[in-house]
Amino acid sequence: MANKGPSYGMSREVQSKIEKKYDEELEERLVEWIVAQCGPDVGRPDRGRLGFQVWLKNGVILSKLVNSLYSDGSKPVKVPENPPSMVFKQMEQVAQFLKAAEDYGVTKTDMFQTVDLFEGKDMAAVQRTLMALGSLAVTKNDGHYRGDPNWFMKKAQEHKREFTESQLQEGKHVIGLQMGSNKGASQAGMTGYGRPRQIIS
Prior knowledge:
Strand content: under 5%
Distance between the termini: 90 Å
Protein name: Transgelin
Order of helices and strands: HHHHHHHH
Number of strands: 0
Radius of gyration: 28 Å
CATH topology of the domain at 12-151: Actin-binding Protein, T-fimbrin, domain 1
CATH class of the domain at 12-151: Mainly Alpha
Oligomer: single chain
Keywords: Acetylation, Cytoplasm, Muscle protein
CATH superfamily of the domain at 12-151: Calponin-like domain
Helix content: 40-55%
Organism: Otolemur garnettii (Small-eared galago)
Shape: elongated
Structural class: mainly alpha
CATH architecture of the domain at 12-151: Orthogonal Bundle
Domain Calponin-homology (CH): 24-137
Pfam families: Calponin, CH
């Protein structure tokens, strides 16, 4: 990775807008959840966007997080004994987390790109991915989520209804309100609209 100098003009404005989306209160909640989910051995980051980025950058904590949402026999990501020091290994570890998060159910629109975290380009996107993962974990309610369930919104769940054949047949004889009604207002007693046009010669 080449070091990038400061950005100017339009690219600086764009980067500034992206940075404003980062939520420091949300960062605190996510840190609390990650520590509750993975245990205190993951440590805590320095406060702020940069500290959060450095904490998650090598992908190890993210991998431990997604692994903690599975039972012991089916961990999706291999976590190395020693955190990777080479850049491509760190990026590979983050990519493995993203694949596991997608397999867990996080939608593509909620996923960040590896570069968003690694270069700190869009830490708000990283927060969005972690929020989506937390919401799924709370919604699944399979015993693997640790922490306060109120930290995340439960996702809407499918509620299938089963109807018997006779209920389906009855439904065919009911006129829905969308079809209109033949009761109530009618045109009885109505006259033509307006007066006829006067033609003066």
